[in-house]
């Protein structure tokens, strides 16, 4: 290999014009090839010789002027034109636009012969982009060349089509290209498949009908054609793997053949058979086998073989090995393969070759979630990588550490990240890492002091580039507080003290966001620091207001803080001074604050009332209709004022005035126009300053307006999902009922991390010891055994920052509380020896008893004997039951009255039915909703569903009616994950208690994530202490459930229409009842919830949106009994889906 | 997914650029300048993959010339690293006899290998076949 490299090394710079003196010396100049003395050659040489950008610009501008004259001269030959094109390509490559030449490139492709034509096509593909208008001019040439008898021309046309082609003209060439799939030459077939791949990328629905042809290509006798079809499959399988599972066998066979060296030798690269093909196949197999044990079963063999064959010591085999490892860890796990993959990763990580080390760390990062033990084995190497001279290795290692962070190692890991940030100032890295630090700090902070200091570092290092969620979330965390009031006060107090110290430094420059955070905290909580004179704080804030680096937005935050502090002091000289000083400020915002402050100071009682202490997180009743202003408005209108226009209206008007195309998706602004304007529009707290005491935190304002929006944003960054999401879930549940004995039990298992122990054989040097120490602090709590302990202990640390479950009241997100309550129930069986589980046990038995008695009035003892072994299959559970026998008897006696009530079951049930049929709460009754349907029922309870179609989501209202005569505790409702639907907030809900014969309901907002005509959302309801009373249910949801009308003007429609790319067209026969266009449209409007934008003659336009905000536009045209439908949307699958619904409606009516 | 393919010399002059996603001309020059700055700042014993913004750069140096490929996170760095070498070997095979400035031909070769950000052909004979036919026709 080395000789090849050497030759290459020497040849390359020359052929690309590095060596000036090489001209003419290199032997005979081939006839077709440009000699170095050519114009391009001299251009490149003179550019290379230049020293300044300015000179370059001058030279190129001159060159461009010459070129312009040449290309537009009629006498220019095609041969010269070709040469000009190459020079134009060169100029554009250097960043000088040469749009005058574009049309000539197209002409050259049209008129030139072979090489000239090829250069013409090349220039087109380099100059134009997908939506360039000139591209249309190319279509004719392409069509002509596709039909040419000269294969070279056909080849070129296919190449350019697979690079760039106008979407709307696909139908013009598609049949021609389909023909080429049967061509006798492999190169033509191959290029035809590549062209179809391009079509699939830009307009998937246009090639839907030829999927079987892709399959044919996959089975082509030529390996190249087969390989060309793989990118299509990779793409399609990525989008929906379930449809292609049947091809697994084929891919496996192909890979086996490739690996086994069955391809022609020229597919080898350094004696490795078609390595890139192998990699692509491995990737496809990984996608197919993901979460699918049966398919994975088919893949194991070939993976094993690939690993075995890739033994050669060459980079390309490492690339294959890396892909193998990734696939092994993606598909359903098999221990033998995992072992081999682990070995492979080990080899990578330990390799002296730096590129391999990088791959090793990357692989570790990928697998750590499944196999934390692997990280433990490599811990010493990881430590070395942390101090690696190459920052890229360091960065990758930090990424790995980020994934293994827990409550015990967070301090060390965050410190490492901060150290890295000291060296790297690249903005993207800073934003990224700072976000991670903030996330880890909130999740795992061991104590208040560390938390505040880390956040200080985040704001100092991150400056103003930090994501705005970071300060918002931080303030929210402070405001909401945790479950422990004392802790809250300490944390806040610490924050206040820390900021006061920071502000001591006269000349320190803090970022705007940091200043905003400081001023909000000082405004809210400075009174907690009783030993600090408010006057001192006011003076500091006053000082800040006068600093020139403080922006006007930040000043508003500071003014808000001043106002809050002023409300808690009787009188202050600083405040008076401040009012005086800023009452004539040029900054209107600050001036307004000053005036407000002045007026408030005059009425202290009002001020106190307006600004209550620590009330930033209490709910406020907001009169959203602003009815108290009615009088004022009426008066205004009476005096001739213009009526108020909503944000939506104003925006529409503004848009209609703008001439330019609007590329913003409309949905965004319409979906939640009120809330988004509320939040986005209000960067500074001015707007709501005194209306509510949440002034400092605009995000919080948003929270009151729409829970959904706010919580969504929060969840992404700050949610519970992080390191080991699945395990953590389980862990969280296990944590709850911990008792001391549990703690000690777990603590007993802690010990040292396993791998470390084995390492500690001989004696170590100082440095080694240091590293060992670091390893100990980094990797505690990892690994299977230690995993348990981590979870036990992590709880105590994370608890500190567990949000108070206040959200409970607002109904929208019960995540936290669900979690906690659901926890106790699931935990019962595991902790059989613990006293705490007793309660659960009793509950268990309780319900188990209830079940039989409701059905029949047999003697309960028999029933019990019958029930117990069946329902408790696990031996531990049996143990537990026998343990708690005594209590069982007493329980029995106690509740016998309730249990033994004799009532014939049938009668009972029917009576309950009439009693317990739920009804929608009033606020929902007004909205459009479906009929109430029963989803499932058992003896104990029944589940009903009502779909409510609100403007911004599908609201599933589920009712659980308790049919028994005793209250049901903790009924859990869990939705299974669905690929098509997304349940906002949490997919679970727990009814804390349902009264006897009572009905409780919960609401879940659902969006459609992946478009489908009809999908099933399934889930289960379970009653905590009885494992058998788990009822499964499923809800059928249709695309229509998520379609809402979208109001817009004809003009907006036109603009939006042009900007959309995915479209479908379909002609449909109209039935006699819908002979007129308007009748048809009305049908569509009613059945599909569309908005009719306009009807002009025999054309009509309609608009709708898929929740949350994907617009979809329809254009209808009637013509002699036919309805031509044309649907466009930014989402590729939506037009198809909607078309299907339209067809259904048309057929039905 | 390959985002772009660049050849830049040590002086920061672009010798070849092919973008697989549309990028404005003025943004290209800024990007290329930053990319080469990143590559030049690295020593021989550092790894050949660089994190740059939200994508990665894979580069190889041949004398004074850097070949740099921008990829997203789904791509296998080492496979791309070797792709560069394969490309260079193909160039070497084709241009071995003659010294010249063949921007168009290098592009034609690259177009056979990478399309729409995907590696589509790595068989040297097949990569060169169309170009050799063109040369043959031009000769006759």
TrEMBL record, chain B:
**Would you tell me the protein name for this molecule?**
AP complex subunit sigma
Keywords, A to Z, come to: Membrane, Protein transport, Transport
What membrane topology term does the record carry? Answer: Peripheral membrane protein
Q: What is the lineage of its organism?
A: Eukaryota, Metazoa, Chordata, Craniata, Vertebrata
GO cellular component terms listed in the entry, alphabetical order: cytoplasm; endomembrane system
Which ranges carry the AP complex mu/sigma subunit domain? 1-137
UniProt cross-references to Pfam families, sorted A to Z: Clat_adaptor_s (PF01217)
Q: Does the keyword Oxidoreductase apply?
A: no
- Family matches, as InterPro entries: AP_complex_ssu, AP_mu_sigma_su, Longin-like_dom_sf
Single biological process term from Gene Ontology: intracellular protein transport
Q: Where in the cell is it found?
A: Endomembrane system
**Family under the similarity heading:** Belongs to the adaptor complexes small subunit family.
Q: How does it assemble?
A: Adaptor protein complex 4 (AP-4) is a heterotetramer composed of two large adaptins (epsilon-type subunit AP4E1 and beta-type subunit AP4B1), a medium adaptin (mu-type subunit AP4M1) and a small adaptin (sigma-type AP4S1).
Q: What does this protein do?
A: Component of the adaptor protein complex 4 (AP-4). Adaptor protein complexes are vesicle coat components involved both in vesicle formation and cargo selection. They control the vesicular transport of proteins in different trafficking pathways. AP-4 forms a non clathrin-associated coat on vesicles departing the trans-Golgi network (TGN) and may be involved in the targeting of proteins from the trans-Golgi network (TGN) to the endosomal-lysosomal system.
Enumerate the CDD domains for this protein. Answer: AP4_sigma
Superkingdom is: Eukaryota
């Amino acid at each position: 290999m080395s000789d090849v490299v050497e030759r290459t090394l020497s040849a390359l710079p020359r052929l690309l014009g590095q060596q000036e003196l090489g001209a003419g010396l290199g032997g005979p100049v081939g006839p077709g090839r440009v000699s170095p003395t050519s114009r391009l050659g001299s251009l490149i040489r003179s550019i290379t010789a230049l020293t300044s950008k300015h000179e370059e610009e001058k030279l190129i501008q001159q060159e461009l002027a010459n070129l312009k004259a040449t290309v537009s001269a009629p006498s220019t030959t095609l041969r010269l034109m070709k040469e000009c094109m190459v020079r134009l390509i060169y100029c554009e490559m250097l960043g000088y636009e040469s749009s005058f030449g574009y049309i000539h490139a197209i002409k050259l492709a049209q008129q030139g012969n072979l090489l000239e034509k090829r250069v013409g096509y090349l220039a087109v593909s380099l100059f134009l982009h997908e939506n360039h208008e000139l591209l249309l001019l190319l279509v004719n040439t392409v069509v002509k060349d596709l039909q040419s008898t000269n294969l070279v021309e056909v080849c070129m046309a296919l190449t350019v089509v697979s690079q760039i082609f106008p979407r709307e003209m696909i139908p013009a060439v598609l049949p021609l290209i389909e023909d080429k799939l049967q061509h006798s030459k492999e190169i033509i077939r191959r290029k035809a498949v590549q062209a179809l791949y391009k079509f699939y990328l830009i307009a998937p629905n246009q090639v839907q009908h030829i999927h079987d042809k892709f399959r044919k290509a996959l089975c082509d006798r030529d390996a190249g054609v087969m390989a060309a079809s793989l990118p299509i499959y990779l793409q399609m399988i990525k989008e929906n793997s379930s449809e292609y599972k049947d091809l697994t066998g084929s891919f496996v066979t192909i890979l086996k053949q490739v690996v086994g060296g069955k391809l022609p030798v020229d597919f080898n690269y350094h004696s490795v058979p078609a390595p890139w093909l192998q990699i692509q196949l491995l990737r496809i197999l990984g996608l197919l086998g993901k979460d699918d044990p049966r398919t994975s079963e088919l893949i194991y063999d070939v993976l094993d073989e690939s690993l075995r064959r890739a033994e050669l010591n060459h980079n390309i085999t490492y690339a294959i090995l890396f892909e193998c490892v990734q696939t092994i860890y993606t598909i359903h796990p098999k221990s033998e393969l995992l072992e081999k993959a682990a070995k492979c990763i080990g080899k990578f990580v330990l390799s002296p070759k730096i590129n391999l080390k990088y791959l090793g760390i990357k692989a570790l990062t990928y697998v750590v979630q499944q196999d934390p033990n692997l990280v433990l084995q490599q811990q010493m190497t990881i430590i070395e990588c942390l101090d690696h001279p190459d920052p890229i290795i360091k960065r990758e290692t930090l990424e790995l550490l980020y994934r293994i962070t827990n409550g015990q190692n967070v301090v060390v890991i965050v410190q490492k990240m901060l150290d890295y940030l000291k060296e790297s100032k690249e903005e993207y890295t800073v934003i990224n890492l700072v976000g991670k630090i903030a996330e880890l700090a909130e999740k795992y902070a061991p104590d208040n002091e560390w938390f505040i200091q880390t956040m200080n570092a985040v704001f100092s290092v991150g400056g103003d580039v930090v994501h705005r969620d970071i300060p918002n979330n931080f303030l929210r965390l402070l405001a909401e507080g945790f479950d422990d009031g004392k802790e809250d006060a300490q944390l806040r107090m610490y924050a206040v003290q820390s900021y006061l110290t920071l502000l001591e430094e006269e000349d320190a420059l803090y970022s705007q966001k940091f200043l905003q955070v400081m001023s909000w905290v000082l405004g809210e909580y400075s009174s907690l620091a009783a030993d600090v004179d408010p006057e001192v704080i006011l003076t500091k804030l006053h000082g800040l207001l006068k600093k020139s680096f403080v922006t006007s937005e930040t000043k508003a935050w500071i003014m808000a803080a001043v106002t809050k502090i002023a409300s808690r002091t009787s009188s202050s000289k600083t405040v008076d001074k401040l009012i005086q000083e800023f009452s004539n400020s040029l900054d209107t915002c600050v001036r307004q604050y000053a005036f407000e402050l002045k007026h408030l100071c005059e009425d202290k009682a009002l001020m106190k009332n307006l600004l209550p202490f620590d009330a930033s997180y209490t709910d406020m009743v907001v009169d959203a209709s602003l009815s108290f202003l009615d009088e004022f408005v009426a008066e205004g209108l009476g005096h001739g004022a213009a009526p108020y226009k909503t944000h939506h209206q104003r925006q529409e008007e503004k848009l209609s005035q703008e001439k330019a195309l609007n590329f913003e998706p409309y949905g965004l602004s319409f979906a939640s126009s009120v809330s988004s304007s509320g939040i986005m529009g209000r960067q500074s707290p001015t707007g709501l300053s005194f209306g509510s005491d949440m002034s400092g935190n605009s995000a919080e304002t948003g929270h009151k307006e729409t829970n959904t929006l706010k919580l969504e944003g929060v969840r992404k960054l700050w949610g519970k999902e992080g390191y080991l999401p699945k395990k953590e879930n389980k862990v969280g549940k296990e944590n709850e009922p911990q008792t001391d004995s549990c703690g000690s039990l777990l603590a007993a298992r802690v010990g040292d991390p396993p791998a470390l122990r084995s390492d500690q054989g001989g004696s170590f040097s100082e440095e080694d010891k240091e590293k060992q120490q670091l390893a100990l602090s980094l990797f505690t709590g990892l690994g299977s055994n230690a995993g348990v302990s981590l979870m036990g202990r992590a709880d105590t640390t994370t608890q500190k920052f567990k949000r108070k479950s206040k959200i409970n009241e607002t109904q929208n997100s019960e995540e936290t509380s669900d979690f906690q309550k659901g926890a106790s129930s699931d935990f019962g069986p595991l902790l059989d020896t613990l006293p705490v589980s007793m309660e659960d046990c009793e509950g268990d038995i309780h319900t188990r008893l209830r079940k039989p008695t409701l059905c029949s009035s047999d003697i309960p003892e028999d029933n019990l004997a019958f029930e117990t072994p069946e329902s408790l299959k696990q031996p531990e559970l049996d143990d537990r039951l026998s343990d708690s026998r005594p209590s069982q008897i007493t329980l029995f006696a106690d509740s016998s009255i309730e249990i033994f009530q004799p009532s014939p079951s049938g009668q009972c049930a029917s009576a309950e039915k009439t009693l317990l049929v739920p009804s929608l709460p009033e606020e929902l009754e007004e909205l459009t909703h479906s009929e109430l349907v029963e989803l499932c029922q058992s003896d104990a309870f029944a589940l009903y569903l009502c779909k409510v179609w609100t403007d911004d989501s599908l609201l599933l209202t589920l009712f659980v009616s308790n049919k028994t005569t005793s209250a049901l505790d903790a009924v859990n409702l869990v939705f299974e994950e669905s690929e098509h639907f997304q349940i906002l907030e949490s997919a679970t809900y727990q009814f804390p208690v349902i009264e006897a014969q009572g009905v409780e309901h919960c609401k879940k907002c659902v969006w459609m994530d992946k478009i489908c005509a009809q999908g099933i959302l399934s889930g289960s309801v379970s009653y905590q202490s009885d494992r058998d009373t788990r009822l499964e249910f499923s809800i059928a949801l249709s695309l229509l459930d998520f379609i809402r009308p979208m109001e817009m003007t004809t003009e907006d429609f036109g603009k939006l229409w042009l900007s959309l790319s995915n479209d479908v067209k379909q002609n449909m026969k109209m039935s006699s009842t819908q002979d007129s266009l308007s009748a048809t449209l009305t049908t569509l409007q009613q059945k599909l919830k569309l908005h009719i934008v306009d009807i002009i003659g025999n054309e009509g336009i309609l608009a709708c949106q898929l929740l949350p905000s994907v617009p979809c536009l329809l254009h209808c045209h009637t013509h002699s009994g036919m309805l031509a439908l044309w649907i466009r949307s930014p989402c590729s699958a939506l037009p198809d889906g909607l078309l299907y619904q339209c067809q259904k409606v048309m057929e039905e009516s | 997914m390959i985002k772009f393919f660049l050849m830049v010399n040590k002086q920061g002059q672009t010798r070849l650029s092919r973008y697989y996603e549309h990028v404005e001309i003025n943004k290209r020059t800024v990007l290329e300048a930053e990319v080469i700055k990143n590559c030049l700042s690295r020593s021989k014993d550092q790894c050949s993959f660089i994190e740059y913004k939200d994508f990665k750069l894979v580069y190889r140096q041949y004398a004074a010339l850097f070949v740099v490929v921008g990829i997203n996170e789904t791509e296998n760095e080492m496979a791309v690293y070797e792709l560069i070498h394969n490309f260079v070997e193909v160039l070497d095979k084709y241009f071995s006899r003659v010294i010249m400035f063949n921007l168009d031909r290098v592009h034609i070769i690259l177009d056979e290998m990478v399309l729409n950000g995907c590696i589509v052909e790595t068989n040297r004979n097949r990569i060169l076949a169309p170009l050799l036919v063109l040369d043959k026709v031009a000769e006759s």
